[in-house]
Batch of 2 targets.
Target 1
Amino acid sequence: MSTPIEPPEPRKVRWGAIGAFVVGVVTVIGTLTQTWTLIFPASSATPETAATTAAGGAAPAATAPTTGPGVASAPAATPGALPPSGTYLRSLTPVRGAGLVVALPKALADLPEYAQAIAVRCPSNNTGQTMAEVSWERLRSADTFTARLLAYDEQANPTQIVELTVFPDPKDWLPGGDAQGPSRSVQAEIGAKPAAIKADVTGAYYVRLRIRCNKPGTVAVLVDPVLSP
């Protein structure tokens, strides 16, 4: 059975209607797309970035950890502020007892807060060796001595006590003689923070530091010892 051929005129009318319908659908879709963009504008920011921007700042940068392996276990000693005209004792040469000054313990030697420190080993406490004394000439412009005393021992010894005494000595001072002015003392214990000391050395010719310990083997560390006006 053959399919009847549609006359040209009805076919033309039908294709025109289909074309008009397609154009209408496309127009409606375009209008809806523009309206959606106006109401809900696109944003390339992630939720985290958008929240930070709304708060008025940039996204926080990652920071390195401040604790963990490699952090020194030595007692903390914050570097002191050097007075404008002050002089570190480390830059001067002792005139007495220079042989009693020893190298800093390895655990402290590379730490910046101990860059200007001086170490003196505790005496053996045998007969005639109950103290260690080191003297420096006082700078004529210096009237004050300041430092912090740290008692250091690789073997934890909570009963160890280290004492530092500062003496302002006259020019003609002899071992066992009197100081020119009043002395000042401070004590430190193993594991404790450095103990501060400030002594008046006005008019003295020498500044004498005496180290005494109730047990031998410990090192007395003078942190930032300074002579200043």
Target 2
Amino acid sequence: MPPVTPKSPVKDWRSTLGMFSGDTLMKEIDEEGRRIREAEKKDQDNVTA
């Protein structure tokens, strides 16, 4: 039996690239995530030092 092929292309996460560029809310979310990662990294550095 031959494999079934979808009639339309499958969309994945790459279809969202650029969708939110320039969006103020997304910039705020990105910046907060950056702050959290930096704080976690700083905390981890203090534990291992």
